[in-house]
């Protein structure tokens, strides 16, 4: 997957790794940054992954 070429700005490691542990890192980082767990949806033979944006404090 192409995501193995991109480093997480949070952890410094690649988002997805060949061993499969990268997916759990992606879920963990997404939950921590956005406060929402990513959603997986099965659509036929494909899987849709929804990752939510980080929550930023309100600007005054």
Low-confidence stretches: none
Largest sheet: 2 strands, antiparallel
* Share of helical residues: 10-25%
Q: Number of DSSP strands? A: 2
Q: Find the structural class using helix and strand composition.
A: alpha+beta
Q: What would you call the shape?
A: flat
The largest sheet has its strands arranged as: 1-2
Number of helices: 1
Summarize this structure briefly:
With 60 residues, the protein is of the alpha+beta class. The protein has one helix spanning 21-34; strands spanning 39-43, 46-50.
Keywords:
alpha+beta; single chain; 60 residues; two-stranded antiparallel ribbon
What does this structure look like?
This protein has one domain (2-50). A hairpin with a 2-residue loop joins strand 1 and strand 2 (46-50). It contains 1 helix and 2 strands, in the order αββ. The chain has a two-stranded antiparallel sheet. It has 60 residues and is α+β, with helices and mostly antiparallel strands. Helices cover 23% and strands 17% of the residues. The chain starts with 20 loop residues before the first helix and ends in a 10-residue tail after the last strand. The longest helix has 14 residues, at 21-34.
List strands and helices in order, with pairings:
Layout: H1 21-34, E1 39-43, E2 46-50
Antiparallel strand pairs: 1-2
């Amino acid at each position: 997957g192409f995501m193995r070429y991109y480093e997480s700005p949070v952890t410094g490691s690649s988002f997805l790794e060949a061993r499969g542990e990268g997916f759990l890192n992606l879920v963990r980082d997404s939950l921590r940054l956005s406060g929402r767990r990513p959603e997986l949806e099965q659509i036929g033979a494909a899987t849709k992954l929804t990752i939510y944006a980080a929550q930023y404090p309100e600007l005054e």
